[in-house]
Specification:
mainly alpha; flat; MetI-like fold; 313 residues
Amino acid sequence: MHRYIVKRLLFLIPTIFGVTLIIYAIMAMTPGDPGRAVLGVNAPQADVDEYNHMLGYDRPFLEKYLNYMKNIILHQDFGVSYFTKQPVFDEVLPRYSLTIKLAVVGVALAALIGVPLGIKAAVKQYSLWDTIPSVMAFFIAAIPQFVLGMILMFIFALKLNLLPSYGTGSIQHYIMPILAIAIPPAAQNMRFTKSSMLEEIRQDYVRTARAKGAEERTVIWKHVLRNALLPVVTQIGMSLGMLIAGTVVVEKLFTLPGIGSLIVDRITFKDEPVILAGTILISIAFTLVMLLVDITYAFIDPRIRAKYTRTRG
């Protein structure tokens, strides 16, 4: 199995090349330049050209791209911000860690809420344990994060004055952002777990186990749940990957200094080093999450683990 993990990690190399090339191409096609964005619309064109030349922005596209990749590969240097003149990592890493924490805690909370409710709804189908959570999940899953965030702010910050609406000073500052991140995926996890459990419950092996006199608890937890968890793990992994890249709305709404809001802010200034570094880190995180999902498959399903073992031999 270790060969498979190494192969997936090596896949990061073409992924990084592809991501940086696409971002570089998109930035080259968009109008404007960092000199004009930083110095302002009233700055003389000579000053703008001098600023762009100092940054190396006026070099040919391919030359800039190759130099950038060479610095990353040989020196692990992601450059200096066009806007702040600070090393890119000094700006990106603190924000990146905040986004990772928000995404991980949000997905964990969504799994802890949604998966047990989905299991209960499937086992108690057509009862109130099924009807009420299913109806609530149907509506909650359709609510965008920013709408849910504004509802939470209205209730807990404006009306009840229990939680701060912005900033990062204490744990209380993160409660509403995490809820805004976690509640929609929790509804999706509940619906996905329920449908996956019901599909497995109707399989022939479940009827056979019941016919042989196996206890219902054993049938559900030992047989049905293990097979039903495979698509659920995929759903949770995809949610984590998407949240790492997509918490920008919540970060903006609650004024949190995350990586998504940083990238969006620097697009205005065409700050390519910061945009590229942030995008590369997000791509690496997404790829590692998918690798973790595949490894989890092997622990859940012995057939997949046996396949990896045969591949290793």
